[in-house]
Amino acid sequence: MNIKPLFDKVVLKEAEKEVTTKSGLLIAPSAAEKPDFYTVVAVGKGSYDDKGQLIPMQVKEGDKVLLSKYSGSQVKVDGVEYTIVSQNEILAVIE
Q1: Phi, psi for residue 92 in degrees, rounded to 5
Q2: Residue 22, pLDDT above cutoff 80
Q3: pLDDT by residue (tens digit) across 49-66?
Q4: How many CB atoms are closer than 10 A to CB 30?
Q5: Could you say which of 2.30.33.40, 3.30.470.10, 3.30.565.10, 3.40.470.10 is the CATH number of the domain covering 9-94?
Q6: What are phi and psi of 93, to 5 degrees?
Q7: pLDDT of residue 27
Q8: Which of 15, 46, 48, 83 could bond 37 through an S-S bridge, CB–CB 3.0 to 4.6 Å?
């Protein structure tokens, strides 16, 4: 099953979590904090302004982005967890 976001929505997948600390200690997945970094999986076509003009998306599939900790809605599709956010909830693109 594919997720196709509408308007200015973006589907994100969590970046890989660190499983060890700098000192070499292992961290249980349940104890690890929610990551701030995500990979863009799918992007909507954009939103429309008051004049009906399409406002294009600023991110594209494959971009690495920074998101605040409690943004978006979490969904699970075919056993994979995704976060869906509006484009304006994305803080930055990581280059």
Answers
A1: -165, 160
A2: no
A3: 999 999 999 999 999 999
A4: 5
A5: 2.30.33.40
A6: -100, 130
A7: 60
A8: 15
